[in-house]
């Protein structure tokens, strides 16, 4: 059997191991460091104290104590944040609130100088049923002004913000797999009948396991920089660093290790002018490549084939190496079961093909209930421990999303030869985790692992106290499931889903998922957009937005001699009141002959575009700059080099009300000639199709025969094809232009 080639992380050029590490003869090995700033991590910073918090009962309790010591600032970033989550459902040693929202309110009441910033991923509607409804209202509108909430949608299409970070006074930071949301709290006992393990509605849920890391000093300050940048990108407002006198570290929390370097690793997808960052992927591969005796991993998913290849290669190189992989028996939810289940099968197959699967244990933990029936424990932790040398804890799963599609953050510790205390601390953390799953003391686990090839035997032996790690047996070949194959690119993409070239051109990398909220904020900056939209949608004026109501007005104009002036003027006035531009074009097409309809609609559309541009240019710039900050500058930079294309593509595939887009373009100082030419090229195909139908639109409305309906459907399809064709042509032109620039 051929040895699999050594994997390398994307963007990495130097080897992970020095050539002197080609054999193990019992002497200390000379290795390249795993933590390498700029390659396997973003930054390496010193921490005075480090604490590993196992399971949410310990993390939530420790976090609550730290929050009560906050002086100036609290920053919370999450994939999910629930204002109703109880940080101490089993009781607290004081009388302060234990639920998140009342606790935050209490913090700013007793300390008016304290500012709390909550940054929550503006999640896909796919997750709406699993989340607290309207978090901006519960955490923002119903709290004092010192508490600010921002819904962060600045990610590419198909990506998510998956980082789970809390920073207090820029001096203490928490990072790991736990969000401050429901369904997470549990103790290391994971009792199946724990009364306190209920969601905000009082409904119980099953045992749940996760891990977090707590650091202070320069490491916390570095994480604060990352948080400040995220906040600025999402809200376009700067956070001011703080230097309080006190120490937010809780007095009764004893650190696991002191005075150590902490590596901070990230995953960031391509966005705007920022290149993708795959530090966590490089970190995992480098750490695995250094393993000698035991790779221990806990993770929600094992689906990243690149990590499987790294593990297979190192197991092939080191016959004495073992691996313990702990994960849930079944991925949570139908989508994950299909997509991630197939991914786990591919992960396992890589190990089997390399001939090393017999030295790997893929296992899931369980705890017996009162009847002796095993109850599965949900493993949500993201932990990698290599020997007693290296540990990383964070938000990254071992799947494709976490390696290159979502935003992630992991913290890592690496012990050198002159750090016996750190070696011992890493080993103790591993032993604690294994001991929790097997119902044995950490000391017993440590003694057992001193023997060669002992990890597999330890896991294979029956646990105690109703705890055990059971093998996850291969099931049907999920990869042959067509549903799983179809879902994989959506549920677990290696990179963000490719968006329309249109939006990439306009916003320099930002995609449709993020553009709509961007333009909503721009429309809000104009000040009246939402009000006018509501006016036409939910008031008696909505009755005017019908063909039957407005057609007589257009027919009166047609009968007069002033139609060439009246129709464009009507377009201008109506559009400034945010009246739907498409309805105006349709009415013009119905009432006038095709040639006149085309001329009137085109002139009216261009006139209304110019008028709204002027309003935005004159009034919108100060407000939009305050709301959008550097993103307004990014629009200017994008349009400076391809303004006509940018505007044209917005017209082909609109992402906001016509007038709103026009005002934003004016406020962004898009060159007027580019703006008008782009509008002409983008709107002309649609106007041509509608006006060419002419009276056919009337017949469809009054006598919708199958033939006429088919004609309208064909016309709409033609309109769509024109738009798609324009996008493809411009996309190819853009690619050829980039090739020419690259060659030059």
Nearest-integer average pLDDT: 79
Helix vs. strand class: alpha+beta
* Net shape: elongated
Counting DSSP H or I runs of 4 or more residues, the number of helices is 24
Q: Report the β-strand fraction as a percent range.
A: 5-15%
Count of β-strands: 19
Helix content: 40-55%
Gyration radius over CA: 30 Å
Which consecutive residue ranges, at least 5 long each, have pLDDT under 50? Answer: 9-30, 499-545, 624-642
Write a structural description.
- This protein is α+β, with helices and mostly antiparallel strands and 744 residues long.
- Among the domains are: 50-254, Endonuclease Chain A (Endonuclease, Chain A, 2-Layer Sandwich), CATH 3.30.870.10; 501-743, no CATH class.
- Helices cover 47% and strands 14% of the residues.
- The protein has 24 helices and 19 strands.
- The protein has a 17-stranded mixed beta sheet that branches. It has a two-stranded parallel ribbon with strand order 7-15.
- α22 (672-693) packs antiparallel against α24 (706-743).
